[in-house]
Amino acid sequence: MEKAKLLYEGKAKKLYEVVGEPDKLIAEFKDDLTAFNAQKKSQEEGKGILNNEISTILFQELEKNGVETHFISKLSDREMLVKRVDIIPIEVVIRNVATGSLSKRLGIPNGKKLPFTLVEFYYKKDELNDPIITDEHALILELVKDVSELDTLRELGKKVNSILVPYFDAIGLRLIDFKLEFGRTSDGNIILADEVSPDSCRFWDKETNEKLDKDRFREGIGGVKVAYEQVRDRILGRV
Predict the structure, then answer these.
(1) Taking the domains of the chain in order of start, what are their residue ranges?
(2) Quick one: DSSP state of residue 69?
(3) pLDDT digits (tens, 9 = 90+) for 178-210
(4) What architecture is the 3-83 domain classified under in CATH?
Protein backbone atom coordinates (compact mmCIF):
# COMPACT_ATOMS: atom_id res chain seq x y z
CA MET A 1 0.00 0.00 0.00
CA GLU A 2 1.38 3.39 -1.02
CA LYS A 3 0.37 6.60 0.71
CA ALA A 4 -1.07 9.38 -1.39
CA LYS A 5 -1.96 12.84 -0.07
CA LEU A 6 -2.67 13.65 3.56
CA LEU A 7 -6.45 13.82 3.83
CA TYR A 8 -6.90 14.79 7.49
CA GLU A 9 -4.85 15.33 10.64
CA GLY A 10 -6.54 15.09 14.00
CA LYS A 11 -5.31 15.14 17.59
CA ALA A 12 -4.18 11.51 17.59
CA LYS A 13 -4.00 10.35 13.96
CA LYS A 14 -3.23 11.31 10.39
CA LEU A 15 -5.31 9.88 7.55
CA TYR A 16 -3.80 9.38 4.12
CA GLU A 17 -5.39 8.42 0.84
CA VAL A 18 -4.06 5.23 -0.79
CA VAL A 19 -2.70 5.16 -4.32
CA GLY A 20 -5.15 3.29 -6.55
CA GLU A 21 -7.51 2.44 -3.66
CA PRO A 22 -10.16 5.19 -3.35
CA ASP A 23 -12.21 3.27 -0.78
CA LYS A 24 -9.28 2.79 1.62
CA LEU A 25 -7.20 5.02 3.89
CA ILE A 26 -4.02 4.63 5.89
CA ALA A 27 -4.36 5.75 9.51
CA GLU A 28 -1.07 6.78 11.13
CA PHE A 29 -1.14 6.91 14.94
CA LYS A 30 0.65 9.90 16.47
CA ASP A 31 2.49 10.25 19.79
CA ASP A 32 0.63 13.47 20.61
CA LEU A 33 -1.32 13.69 23.86
CA THR A 34 -4.17 16.17 24.23
CA ALA A 35 -6.77 16.83 26.90
CA PHE A 36 -9.51 19.34 27.66
CA ASN A 37 -10.20 19.88 23.96
CA ALA A 38 -6.49 20.27 23.18
CA GLN A 39 -5.94 22.98 25.81
CA LYS A 40 -3.38 20.65 27.41
CA LYS A 41 -0.83 19.17 25.01
CA SER A 42 2.24 16.96 25.18
CA GLN A 43 3.89 13.98 23.51
CA GLU A 44 4.70 10.49 24.74
CA GLU A 45 7.16 8.62 22.56
CA GLY A 46 5.73 5.27 21.46
CA LYS A 47 2.13 6.05 22.44
CA GLY A 48 0.96 5.88 18.83
CA ILE A 49 2.57 2.46 18.36
CA LEU A 50 0.81 1.15 21.47
CA ASN A 51 -2.58 2.53 20.42
CA ASN A 52 -2.21 1.01 16.96
CA GLU A 53 -1.39 -2.38 18.45
CA ILE A 54 -4.20 -2.25 21.01
CA SER A 55 -6.79 -1.00 18.50
CA THR A 56 -5.80 -3.71 16.01
CA ILE A 57 -6.47 -6.49 18.52
CA LEU A 58 -9.72 -4.94 19.79
CA PHE A 59 -11.09 -4.29 16.30
CA GLN A 60 -10.38 -7.92 15.45
CA GLU A 61 -12.14 -9.05 18.63
CA LEU A 62 -15.19 -6.92 17.82
CA GLU A 63 -15.31 -8.15 14.22
CA LYS A 64 -15.17 -11.73 15.51
CA ASN A 65 -18.23 -10.95 17.63
CA GLY A 66 -20.32 -9.40 14.89
CA VAL A 67 -19.44 -5.70 15.03
CA GLU A 68 -18.41 -4.35 11.63
CA THR A 69 -15.49 -1.92 11.83
CA HIS A 70 -13.37 0.10 9.42
CA PHE A 71 -10.31 -2.03 10.23
CA ILE A 72 -8.73 -3.96 7.35
CA SER A 73 -5.18 -4.74 8.46
CA LYS A 74 -2.20 -3.52 10.45
CA LEU A 75 0.43 -2.23 8.03
CA SER A 76 3.27 -1.30 10.40
CA ASP A 77 3.97 -0.44 14.02
CA ARG A 78 2.24 2.90 13.57
CA GLU A 79 -0.05 2.41 10.56
CA MET A 80 -3.39 0.72 9.96
CA LEU A 81 -5.28 0.19 6.70
CA VAL A 82 -8.95 1.10 7.06
CA LYS A 83 -12.11 1.42 5.00
CA ARG A 84 -12.88 4.96 3.94
CA VAL A 85 -16.00 6.20 5.69
CA ASP A 86 -17.92 9.43 6.11
CA ILE A 87 -17.57 10.09 9.85
CA ILE A 88 -20.80 10.92 11.66
CA PRO A 89 -19.98 14.00 13.79
CA ILE A 90 -21.32 12.48 16.99
CA GLU A 91 -19.14 11.09 19.77
CA VAL A 92 -20.96 8.14 21.31
CA VAL A 93 -19.96 7.83 24.97
CA ILE A 94 -20.80 4.64 26.84
CA ARG A 95 -20.64 4.78 30.63
CA ASN A 96 -20.64 1.93 33.14
CA VAL A 97 -19.27 3.84 36.13
CA ALA A 98 -19.67 7.52 37.03
CA THR A 99 -16.54 9.62 36.73
CA GLY A 100 -15.21 12.64 34.84
CA SER A 101 -17.76 14.99 33.33
CA LEU A 102 -20.73 12.85 34.40
CA SER A 103 -19.84 13.20 38.08
CA LYS A 104 -19.21 16.94 37.64
CA ARG A 105 -22.46 17.59 35.78
CA LEU A 106 -24.81 15.53 37.91
CA GLY A 107 -23.03 15.21 41.24
CA ILE A 108 -22.93 11.41 41.06
CA PRO A 109 -20.09 10.20 43.30
CA ASN A 110 -16.92 9.38 41.43
CA GLY A 111 -16.57 5.62 41.00
CA LYS A 112 -20.25 4.80 41.58
CA LYS A 113 -21.38 1.89 39.41
CA LEU A 114 -24.34 2.95 37.30
CA PRO A 115 -27.57 0.90 37.54
CA PHE A 116 -27.53 0.45 33.77
CA THR A 117 -25.29 1.27 30.83
CA LEU A 118 -25.63 4.93 29.94
CA VAL A 119 -25.18 6.11 26.33
CA GLU A 120 -24.64 9.82 25.68
CA PHE A 121 -24.18 11.78 22.47
CA TYR A 122 -21.72 14.65 22.09
CA TYR A 123 -21.49 16.97 19.10
CA LYS A 124 -18.04 16.46 17.56
CA LYS A 125 -17.17 20.15 17.23
CA ASP A 126 -13.93 21.39 18.79
CA GLU A 127 -14.81 25.07 18.63
CA LEU A 128 -17.93 24.36 20.73
CA ASN A 129 -16.01 22.10 23.15
CA ASP A 130 -17.90 18.99 21.99
CA PRO A 131 -21.19 19.72 23.83
CA ILE A 132 -23.55 17.00 25.01
CA ILE A 133 -26.63 16.82 22.77
CA THR A 134 -30.09 15.25 22.75
CA ASP A 135 -31.70 13.30 19.91
CA GLU A 136 -33.58 16.44 18.93
CA HIS A 137 -30.35 18.45 18.76
CA ALA A 138 -28.82 15.83 16.48
CA LEU A 139 -31.81 16.02 14.16
CA ILE A 140 -31.90 19.83 14.13
CA LEU A 141 -28.19 19.92 13.30
CA GLU A 142 -28.74 17.25 10.61
CA LEU A 143 -25.95 15.10 12.05
CA VAL A 144 -27.98 11.99 11.15
CA LYS A 145 -30.62 11.24 8.55
CA ASP A 146 -33.34 10.20 10.98
CA VAL A 147 -34.09 8.82 14.45
CA SER A 148 -33.36 5.28 13.31
CA GLU A 149 -29.68 6.18 12.83
CA LEU A 150 -29.51 7.43 16.41
CA ASP A 151 -31.05 4.14 17.52
CA THR A 152 -28.37 2.32 15.51
CA LEU A 153 -25.60 4.29 17.22
CA ARG A 154 -27.03 3.44 20.65
CA GLU A 155 -27.47 -0.23 19.81
CA LEU A 156 -23.95 -0.54 18.39
CA GLY A 157 -22.48 1.28 21.40
CA LYS A 158 -24.21 -1.10 23.79
CA LYS A 159 -23.16 -4.11 21.73
CA VAL A 160 -19.51 -3.04 21.81
CA ASN A 161 -19.84 -2.56 25.57
CA SER A 162 -21.36 -6.03 26.04
CA ILE A 163 -18.34 -7.53 24.26
CA LEU A 164 -15.60 -5.46 25.85
CA VAL A 165 -16.72 -5.44 29.51
CA PRO A 166 -16.23 -9.22 30.00
CA TYR A 167 -13.16 -9.14 27.73
CA PHE A 168 -11.40 -6.66 30.01
CA ASP A 169 -12.79 -8.18 33.19
CA ALA A 170 -10.98 -11.40 32.26
CA ILE A 171 -7.65 -9.53 32.25
CA GLY A 172 -8.24 -7.69 35.50
CA LEU A 173 -9.48 -4.36 34.09
CA ARG A 174 -12.72 -2.46 34.65
CA LEU A 175 -14.04 -0.72 31.54
CA ILE A 176 -15.31 2.48 33.18
CA ASP A 177 -16.42 4.37 30.08
CA PHE A 178 -15.32 4.95 26.50
CA LYS A 179 -15.88 7.03 23.39
CA LEU A 180 -16.74 5.59 19.99
CA GLU A 181 -17.01 7.16 16.56
CA PHE A 182 -18.94 5.73 13.65
CA GLY A 183 -18.98 6.35 9.93
CA ARG A 184 -21.02 5.56 6.85
CA THR A 185 -19.53 3.40 4.12
CA SER A 186 -20.04 4.20 0.45
CA ASP A 187 -23.14 1.97 0.46
CA GLY A 188 -24.61 3.70 3.52
CA ASN A 189 -23.83 1.15 6.25
CA ILE A 190 -22.92 2.55 9.66
CA ILE A 191 -19.75 0.92 11.03
CA LEU A 192 -17.34 1.48 13.90
CA ALA A 193 -14.39 3.73 13.02
CA ASP A 194 -11.62 5.76 14.73
CA GLU A 195 -9.87 3.67 17.45
CA VAL A 196 -10.42 1.71 20.66
CA SER A 197 -7.49 2.39 22.96
CA PRO A 198 -6.47 3.93 26.31
CA ASP A 199 -6.83 7.30 24.55
CA SER A 200 -10.56 6.70 24.10
CA CYS A 201 -11.34 4.36 27.03
CA ARG A 202 -11.03 4.57 30.80
CA PHE A 203 -9.50 1.43 32.31
CA TRP A 204 -9.18 0.89 36.07
CA ASP A 205 -7.38 -2.04 37.63
CA LYS A 206 -9.98 -4.37 39.20
CA GLU A 207 -8.09 -4.76 42.47
CA THR A 208 -6.57 -1.33 43.03
CA ASN A 209 -8.64 1.03 40.83
CA GLU A 210 -5.35 2.34 39.41
CA LYS A 211 -6.02 4.36 36.27
CA LEU A 212 -4.43 2.89 33.16
CA ASP A 213 -5.53 5.35 30.49
CA LYS A 214 -5.25 8.96 29.33
CA ASP A 215 -6.53 10.24 32.69
CA ARG A 216 -2.93 9.84 33.84
CA PHE A 217 -2.13 12.72 31.47
CA ARG A 218 -5.28 14.71 32.17
CA GLU A 219 -4.66 14.58 35.92
CA GLY A 220 -0.87 14.95 35.79
CA ILE A 221 -0.27 11.55 37.36
CA GLY A 222 2.46 10.61 34.87
CA GLY A 223 3.46 7.16 33.69
CA VAL A 224 1.26 7.30 30.59
CA LYS A 225 3.36 5.00 28.43
CA VAL A 226 3.87 2.48 31.25
CA ALA A 227 0.09 2.38 31.80
CA TYR A 228 -0.62 1.87 28.09
CA GLU A 229 2.03 -0.86 27.98
CA GLN A 230 0.33 -2.60 30.88
CA VAL A 231 -2.99 -2.58 29.04
CA ARG A 232 -1.27 -3.89 25.90
CA ASP A 233 0.56 -6.63 27.79
CA ARG A 234 -2.61 -7.81 29.52
CA ILE A 235 -4.40 -7.98 26.17
CA LEU A 236 -1.50 -9.87 24.59
CA GLY A 237 -1.58 -12.30 27.48
CA ARG A 238 -5.14 -13.14 26.52
CA VAL A 239 -4.66 -13.43 22.74
Answers:
(1) 3-83, 86-222
(2) B
(3) 999 999 999 999 999 999 999 999 999 999 999
(4) 2-Layer Sandwich (3.30)
